[in-house]
Amino acid sequence: MSLYRIDLHVHSPASHCFSGDKSSAPLIIERAKEMRLDMIAVTDHHSASGIREVQRAAKNAAVTVLPGMELTCRIRDIAEVFLLALFSEDFPIESMERQLRSWQVPPEEFGNGGFVVPVPAEQIIFDVRSSGGLIVSARSDKTEYRRKVIPDLLRMGVKLFDLVYPRQFPQELFQVSVKEGPLWFFAFSDSHSPAQVGSRSSEITLSAPVFKSNIKYLADF
Asked: What residues pair up with 7 in beta bridges, in sequence order?
């Protein structure tokens, strides 16, 4: 086991709110190298179309690129719940796009962070796990509304949380009993430009900077 630096919340030009031109994938990888990141995840808003380009840019770099998506969901009356769906390095992009359609995300909303997925968050969590993926609650403590749904996410079995204010850890929000396994807390960049990649990152002990050999360790399936 070794210590690796990761940033699993990185946007590409496939997100409408990305600040940069359409050929920014090499700049994302260059910045990841500068920040000494071992692993990043491309997590565009309701889109998988930017992943391949970033993976190609990383072909000869010592940076693992995971395919992922950021999904805006509703829990109770709160439509400010952000889930990162992360998959193994070789997970088919076509499968991710099929999943988006099954969640009733129309193609014209791919890349739109303002779109709210109409299916229940529980269904998204179940589907991602059934596909061998991981769910991370993104920027869970940023607002009062997001903090309110942390107990709901815990009851749904979410164990990985990205925090904006880790030094002000909201311990009281994580008192809901969890049946099995530990909780994991991270700080990721949510970068919307190459310059922001790695501006927030976390260190984690893994057997290798690859997804497949660590998913059971992280998810505690």
From this structure: 40
Measured CA to CA, the distance from residue 187 to residue 166 in angstroms comes to: 7
| pTM for the full predicted model | 0.91
Question: Can you give 191-206 as a three-state secondary structure string?
Answer: ECCHHHCCCCCEEEEE
pLDDT tens for 110-166 read: 999 999 999 999 999 999 999 999 999 999 888 888 888 998 999 999 999 999 887
Measure Cα distances from 129 to 63, 86, 217 in Å: 24, 10, 14
CATH number given to 2-219: 3.20.20.140
Strands in the chain per DSSP E: 2-10, 39-45, 64-75, 78-86, 134-137, 160-162, 184-186, 202-206
Please state the domain extents for the chain.
2-219
